[in-house]
UniProtKB/TrEMBL annotation:
Organism whose genome encodes this protein: Nothocercus julius
SUPFAM superfamilies, A to Z: RmlC-like cupins
One Gene Ontology term, aspect cellular component: plasma membrane
InterPro entries: Cupin_1, Dynactin-associated, RmlC-like_jellyroll, RmlC_Cupin_sf
SMART domains with a match to the protein in the record: Cupin_1
Record's protein name: GL25 protein
Pfam families on file: Cupin_1 (PF00190)
Occurrences of domain Cupin type-1 (ranges): 107-239
Amino acid sequence: LFLLFFSTHEELKTLDVDDVFFSTPEDIAARALKPQGGVDFIRTFKKQTEDQAVNLPPNLQELVQNASYVQSPDHLVWQYFYDLKGSAQYPFPGGIFQWARYRINGTGLNETEKIFSESLNKHENTLTLATLRIFSNGLGQPHFHFNANEMGYVISGCGKVGVVASDITANFNIDIGDVIFFPVGSQHYIKSVCDEDLLLILAYSTGNQLETLRMNDYFHKTADHILAQLFFKEQNEFKKILQASK
């Protein structure tokens, strides 16, 4: 079972091997593949009524005798593969992140992580992936991303989500199998409300280093006299936020 993310906002266009083969004239396929028997061999192929991208032959064991693969060298494998579950954990108050992402500063990355990180940045419209685990009653605090849309899929647990965009505010519940979407620049939060942890897979539409700003960061870094004017509260009141953060 795979969960797939595709980096396009348009309708996904896909061509399968069998579709291409059966769309190619028999004589052209014979000249290209040069099989024993020539075009007569090509004519032995019959297009199935069902799409073979999602349906396996009922006699699969008869057709396949050997499905072994030879592992490619690391410099090739890790351009396309990343052991996310086995990677470093990044805890925060209320949960844990694990990242498969591009990082500008590769300090601390092992050699295979560097290969993957550099590969992401070489390709247009790649994705940064992560797993987010929020402990029971924990909070992924309000934040937004400067340079990426975000999609998520709920693997386990349940939670509450809030989204604040330029023209709308939305709050809703999420459960196993739900997909969530946060447009670039929209502030959002996720809270776990079940007895078990809330676990999600997240995808960000950027091959560059993800840029994020959290609510506690922009409150702490905004001058308290500016906050006093915005919220009509005494300037000293905002020292309570700074003290609480410590």
